[in-house]
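Entry 14. Structure prediction run on the chain below.
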Amino acid sequence: MVNLINLKGSRHNPHQLLFSKTELSKILNAYSNGVIKDHWRDYALDQNGSISVFSIFKNSREKATFCITKRRENSKKLNRFSLQYRLRTVEVSSNLDKILKRLENMPKLLKN
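Output returned:
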């Protein structure tokens, strides 16, 4: 079991929506496959209370090419994931695996 250490000045909000360890592992696995195929070069992880975003960059000097977003449905405990390509939503699902499968196919679709 992991023990959390409260660092001085750090404040964890229990209501903040974060990617779980399993979700983050799946996302990083998909990201690393894209890096191996030379589709992507950088990523960023952002949290803003009710939303978490994993952004994927083709080049670190550009805007995010893809974003995987996790948000909580209104007044429900159901999490909703979405995949965005250049700020356009291309897939929405409560199943992260469905989003990652679509992400895996996107670079192939864009190269043609």
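The first strand starts at residue 42 and ends at 47.
Filed with the rest of this week's runs.
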